[in-house]
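Notes from the pairing session

We agreed to fold both candidates in a single pass and log them together. This is the raw record for the first candidate, unedited. Please don't reformat it; downstream parsing expects exactly this layout.

Candidate A
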Amino acid sequence: MSRVIAVLGAGTGLGVAVARRFGREGFRVALVARRQDRLDALVEELGGEGVEAAAFPADLAEPAGVPALVEAVRGRFGRIDVVAYGPISGEQGFTPAAELDAATLEGLLPLLLLTPVEVVRAVLPEWTERGDGAFLLAQGYSAARPMPDLSGLGPVMAATRNYLHSLHAELADKGVYAGALTIASLIDRSEVSAAARAAFDAADGPRFPVADPDDLAEHYWNMYTVRDRAERFHPESLTPPATA
């Protein structure tokens, strides 16, 4: 039976690029996002390229729905071998640390921390029994390097990063891989990137670098196959120095 990747947060940027990259290696693809119309379009697009894909509409900001979602994917494909988790939306944004409050953090916690933990809990028994599996997480650079005026998202992603590094160490000898791709750029071809660039241009604001999602998907494939570290950075030049 061919392997299966579940792309949670499947969109027109990184999500479909990851689906396409793994699909070239023979993976079947489960696409998960809120919008049925977007998912249907991506399923059709991938199908035209010879990649078997299916849509699973779900709100990933609701951790309680994770067990049913995982069972639905297993019901369709029979297994899950890889999870690529990277939902982000234009509804999320940075907040200066001096203006941050508990309500803002509580709103970010489900999607960025609680649901990833629940996804791992749901798939880990299958992976440890098989002795193989991989959880790949996309996150922003502020998770690793705090920056003025770019708080809110950063503290929550930092908590998830902490969890993932611990998970990586605990599971390495069980054949299960957990790794984060930390991205210091916008992602081309995504709706969020287009909206952010338009906002920055309109306000004559900062210009952020833009990454090609195909390059990021290649990072994911290398992480999955090599499994030599808990975290990779894009661009690599921004990798923080190791601490003693």
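Candidate B (folded immediately after A)
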Amino acid sequence: MGDLALEVGQKIRASEIGLLASLGYSKVKVYKKPILSVLTTGDELVDITDSIENGKIRNSNEYSLKALAKDLEVRSFGIIEDKKDVIKEKLKEALEISNIIITSGGSSAGDYDFIEDVLSELGADIKFNKIAIKPGKPVIFATVGEKLVFGLPGNPLSFINTYEEFVKPAILKMSGENIKENKFPVILKHDIKCKAGRTNYVYVDINKEDGKFYAYEVGSQCSNQLLMITKSNGIVIVPKNKGFVKKEKS
């Protein structure tokens, strides 16, 4: 009597349901999972089943997002052309039906990057419009009432990286879950050269050998490289004041 049975933020699994039943609880208050909408912008995009023509690329970000957010209800608006009025109408629709809106592309400062302008016109409170990380500098975060809007880069690696760094923690917090970071030191098996001034996220393959963790290079870190990310299982985070990190001496 008086002991704590379950903590706030604890996930309700089969064992927790059994415990609740044994204590006589047929109902318990839980957090509602947020509904996610994704708007993929870009005149250069075609669907994955379409043929590629000059200047076109397949829409991979929408499918990556659906996999990243597989436990949530994801509502996709498909490929949206780079027209300000079209983006504005789709964003208004998304705000009506979801708690979190993610846009892919259109968050930078080019002639056809309209996300920030559209958010301003909708009365959004824009918290920031760029961040000092690589990959993933052109990220917009805004709120419209209690709705969260993340304008993520269109480059696939940048898109995935910024989702994991910014969107995923927001989803966990809105879902009432405790945020746990899985960080640990590794020994580099190759030199890392990067531009100082931004925190660099370097994708690597981490292996445990004789009780120590070693990080191996997996290829080009260019922000459009998805093949490289399929060969990695971890990330080395290089502080923004470092442009060079030396490998372990053999």
